[in-house]
Amino acid sequence: MRVLLIEDDTALCEAITLHLKKEGYQTDICGNGEDAVYYIEKHTQDVIVLDRMLPGKDGLSILNDIRDQGITTPVIMVTAMNGINDRIDGLDGGADDYLVKPFAMDEFLARIRALLRRPRNMKNTPLLSYKDISLDTSIYMVSKGEKQISLSKREGAFLEYLMLNQENIVTREQILNRVWGLNTFVEDGNIDNYISFLRRRLKALDTHVCIKTVHGIGYRLEYSSHA
């Protein structure tokens, strides 16, 4: 599961990231409101943790922007503003939960788990499709007709990102950020290895969907009768 943490307090980010990692979550961090909107538009998250007071753009404005775009990812707003009207503004603005700082980390993690248990909007269905293949992102099972192949978490996240972008090119940097996480050192050959793994998985499905290398840029999905 991937959590996007939109927070400019470095110490709090480090503490939250540490606890989320212990629970098995991957965490991406944005410390600026303007950057956060762009990141949400370009990436997929399971939960967004959103500070209300941010440089560049405040949390309520970010919330309004993403809800107006039809992005229904669960959002928990965290803030030192604890008035009744503040909470009402946050929840009416589209937040799914509202947590006042300072908070106990155990309560924070419990609220994250509660959001993840909620039924997701059909717009966020875990089933992705491209041409004749489908990917169940809840268990990372890729299929074509009756044929099914189980993927590792990293293979699944990689293919999910390619399928979300359909035939658009994704750069190696974008893949690193989405699959391995921001600010994570990864040897360059690891991407090539996973591309090779996924190509073998697709070949085993007997599909014409293939992963096309765009030299010097990145990769994209392609449907070819010669695959």
Automatic annotation (TrEMBL):
GO BP terms: regulation of DNA-templated transcription
Domain of life of the native organism: Bacteria
Molecular function, one GO term: transcription cis-regulatory region binding
DNA-binding region coordinates: 125-223
Entry keywords, A to Z: DNA-binding, Phosphoprotein, Transcription, Transcription regulation, Two-component regulatory system
Residue ranges constituting the Response regulatory domain according to the UniProt record: 2-116
Listed PROSITE patterns: OMPR_PHOB (PS51755), RESPONSE_REGULATORY (PS50110)
Residues recorded as bearing 4-aspartylphosphate in the entry: D51
Domain OmpR/PhoB-type as annotated: residue spans: 125-223
A GO CC annotation given for this chain: protein-DNA complex
InterPro entries in UniProt: CheY-like_superfamily, OmpR/PhoB-type_DNA-bd, Sig_transdc_resp-reg_C-effctor, Sig_transdc_resp-reg_receiver, WalR-like, WH-like_DNA-bd_sf
Main function: May play the central regulatory role in sporulation. It may be an element of the effector pathway responsible for the activation of sporulation genes in response to nutritional stress. Spo0A may act in concert with spo0H (a sigma factor) to control the expression of some genes that are critical to the sporulation process.
PANTHER family: REGULATOR OF RPOS
Protein name in UniProt: Stage 0 sporulation protein A homolog
Source organism per UniProt: Anaerocolumna chitinilytica
